[in-house]
Structure formats: C-alpha cells, structure tokens
Amino acid sequence: MIDGDTIEIHGTRIRLHGIDAPESAQLCQRPDGVSWRCGQQAALALQDYIGRRTVACVKRDTDRYGRIIGRCSVGGVDLNAWMVESGWAVAYRGYATDYVNEEQRARAARVGIWSGAFVMPWDWRRGQRLRVVQESAVKNCPIKGNISQRGERIYHVPGGRYYDRTRVNESKGERWFCTEAEAQAAGWRRSPQ
Are 143 and 156 in contact (CB under 8 A)? Predict the structure, then answer.
C-alpha cells in the first residue's frame, strides 16, 4: 500500500482512477477541533479493506509518473468507489466524474474526511493547509453562515469548496450553525459545492 489512492502489485504502482485521497502527511480536523492524520487513515482503511484478498485492476491509462491508472476491485467490489463512498477519498473531477455520486453520499453521511474540515488533496499538494477552526466551530457548530457582498446569506459545510477560505464576522451578522436545518430555518441557503 502506497497511500489512499495508489497501490502496488508485484512491484507495479497503480493509481486508482477518478479518485484523490488525502496525502500521507495531510491533517484533517474533526468538528471538536482535534486534528487527525486523515491521509494516513485513508491508506490504512484501504489496506484493511483489501487485507489478504486478491486485487484485480483494469488499466485505463498511464500517468506522467509512469504509474498505471486503473479501476481496481476486490471480490467484485470497485475499490475506487469504495474509497470515495467510505469518505476516504474524493471524486477527482479534474480527470473524471465517475465517482461524484459516491462522494455526495459520503458527504451527506459525514463519513471519513467529511466528518469535519479538510483541504482538498489537490489544494494540499499546492501548499494550502487547514486553518485552525475558530472557537465557535469547536463547540460542534462547524457550519459557517456568511453574507456575500450582494447581501446573500449563504452557509458553508466542512469540506465544502469555499469552507476553508470563509471567515465568519459576527459583527456583520454572520454566524455559526450547528446543523444545516438550523441554517435553512434561519433563511440561509447552502453554498454550491
């Protein structure tokens, strides 16, 4: 096992098609503010799921590093889909949209990396890091209610596209919410993901 989206079979590295998992050194943050090694956990989850079973892969391409890009399975289960639906990887939309539905289910269920805040793996590789969540979010109210320049009331959920760069300025009427239902009842709409 190399990481959460790359495996090695008989000395050949295979990058799982259409998904991107947190990097091995990447940290995520739980709603209570505790940081955890989500990249390491993603790799361990994949390793535990495979166990000693046989992995079958179908080559789709070769990447710039010479790795095979493939769709792999264990016992008939698509590993790529399993990683995304279990919340250990995201759909790598820059290359494929095969696993968008699995990502939406994982996000809705708040499993794996979707259980709190994280930086998308491709942004993390470019140097973006998770900022410390403000005190209100640590109190299990991690949803950020933001007011746009046009006066729109928009809320952002952990792991959402704009979540990490959104700041809550309570003096301007912005606020924190504990649940999406609470944000919606207050008249806020969800940010497009």
Answer: yes
Active-site choice (23, 85, 103, 174): 23
pTM (predicted TM-score): 0.69
Q: Which two tokens mark 184? A: 């919606």
Residues 140 and 111 in one domain: no
Same domain, 114 and 155: no
Q: Give the model confidence (pLDDT) of 132-187 as tens digits.
A: 544 444 456 889 999 988 999 999 998 888 888 888 887 788 888 888 998 998 89
Which helix or strand (DSSP H or E) is residue 108 part of? helix 100-109
User: Is 175 within a domain?
Assistant: yes
Q: Does 98 fall in a domain?
A: yes
Close Cβ partners of 108 (under 8 Å, ≥ 6 residues apart): none
Q: Are residues 141 and 113 in the same domain?
A: no
Look at residues 30, 1, 41, 25 and name the one whose alpha carbon lies nearest to residue 115: 30
Is 15 an active-site residue?
Answer: yes
Among the options 13, 30, 37, 67, which is catalytic?
67
Tokens of 100: 């968008």
